[in-house]
């Protein structure tokens, strides 16, 4: 898909600037220019597409839609809706309480709460740009599985009493209404959202790809393979723990992972790391602590964390 | 006219409050602006994604940081 762009960068770096494709500097600069522009382009297109689709559905719609549905439909539906609705950890409290208020089971609420940040548009765009559609699809499918099964398990543990704030459930049926807007307004809104996000993250991408390019050109492959490859049986667990504090920097961290993968890091380890970055976020846990007991947050992190670790080892074993 | 900003103190909520103030000034109408931070009150409005904008008791926007002009349009329409 980006062959033409690679050709242009080839010509520029190796012919116009006369660098050798064998030299560390030449290949690092080539990598930097090629990757940065490609990822910026993909970020803009994918975030625009996702936020355009989102102008039809908001979280209020999801809540009304999930009200009174069966458990199976609830877990699957909540996880799928997590892909197309925006999620901001600052909204986690009204979201959580609002779902409980509509008598949506705690487990289903967690399915949504796991899926929504994991399938955020930045992560999907970065994955697509760096690893291609296959890895992106694997990430989404297994992410959904963690959300569905994780939410189901949390729901089975009778955690209702771990919610610290009492919410009076409503008996009125909520009306599910799609957002009405003109086509032009949807495009305008999507564009504004896209440019907002892009402005926030483009420098992180630049930095991430820059460090990645340096690793690409200068760090020997065996060093990376020794610590992140098959010879380190704890790589997946370490990756998941390291991923927890990195939520806000997904855009900067992912280019590094791509380089590490191309140099011997196993794909399962990379997947686990990226899921941990998006699904287990420290700021979100701190916000949820205002309404959930530490025990429930612990259960949430343990179940999601274990799920992600299992996926990592599974992939490392198969691939 | 009464305009309420629903939000538990996130950055977007503060920005929306600021935009609402400017929008009222721009619209030339008299409106009282109130920030609602009590989560139970936010629940009563049925809003689950903050920030929310309420005009005279009616929820007109959720989960979005509106521009000043968009709020002016909403003020005129309600």
Chain pair with largest interface? A-B, 20 and 17 residues
> Count the strands of chain A?
0
Strand count, sense and barrel status of the largest sheet of chain A are: none
- Classify the beta-strand content of chain A into a percent band: under 5%
* Separation, N- and C-terminal Cα atoms of chain A: 25 Å
Instruction: Please give the number of β-strands of chain B.
Output: 4
Number of helices of chain A: 15
- Helix/strand structural class of chain A: mainly alpha
**Amino- and carboxy-terminal Cα gap of chain B:** 9 Å
Number of spatially distinct domains of chain A: 1
Give the neighbour order of strands across the main sheet of chain B.
2-1-3-4
Instruction: Name the CATH class of chain B.
Output: Alpha Beta
Contiguous uncertain segments of 5+ residues of chain A: none
Question: What are the secondary-structure elements of chain B, in order, as H or E?
Answer: EHEHEEH
Strand content of chain B: 15-25%
Spell the H/E element sequence of chain A: HHHHHHHHHHHHHHH
User: Which structural class best describes the helix and strand composition of chain B?
Assistant: alpha+beta
Percentage of residues assigned to helices of chain B: 40-55%
Biggest sheet statistics of chain B: 4 strands, mixed
Fold-level CATH name of chain B: Glutaredoxin
Please count the helical segments of chain B. 3
